[in-house]
Amino acid sequence: DGTEITRPTVKVLDPSQNEICTKKKTVTLVCVATEFYPDHIQVYWQKNGANITHGYQTDERATRNENTGKYSITSRLRIPLKKWYNTRNRFTCLTRYINETSYNKTSYIDSFYTINGVKDDIISRSQWAKLTYGTLIAKSAVYGMFIFVVVWKLKVCLFFIFS
C-alpha cells in the first residue's frame, strides 16, 4: 500500500509502584513495540540470555494505527517479585521483525531493551534502607562504647578520690 518498511521501536515498562507496593507476589513487565511496518513480528522474552517459554502473553496480532498505517504490539511478562528484586536477573524483551518479499525471507533481532529490578548504577530503595539501618546500628554501637568508656573512667576516678 506504499507504506515504507519500518523496524519497530521497542520499550519495556517497569512494574507500576502500586503493583510493587501491594502484597502481591508477582509483578508485570510490559514490552511495547511500535511504529513498524509490515505487521510480521514476533515478541519474546529472555531471562539472563535464556529464552522464557511461559509466564508471558503477547497480543494475538499487531494493531494498526489508521493515521500512520504502522503497527504496534504489546507483550506482558509476569514474574515473581523476588526475581524482580534480584540484581543478578536481567529480563530482555526481543522482537524478531520479519520482512517477507517474493524473493527471500529475512529474520533478525531488531531491538531489545534490558531491564532489571535494580537499575545499573542505582541503588534500590530496599538497599538504601538496609544501608541506612546498618549505619544507624553501627553508629549506635560506637556511641554506646564511648558512653561505656566515659562511665568506666569516671567510676575509676571517683573510686580513687573517695578511697
From TrEMBL:
Name of the protein: Ig-like domain-containing protein
Alphabetic keyword roster: Disulfide bond, Immunoglobulin domain, Membrane, Transmembrane, Transmembrane helix
Domain Ig-like: 8-110
Spans through the membrane: 140-162
InterPro entries hit by this protein: Ig-like_dom, Ig-like_dom_sf, Ig-like_fold, Ig_C1-set, Immune_Resp_Modulators
Lineage: Eukaryota, Metazoa, Chordata, Craniata, Vertebrata
Species of origin: Paramormyrops kingsleyae
SMART domains: IGc1
PANTHER family: TAPASIN
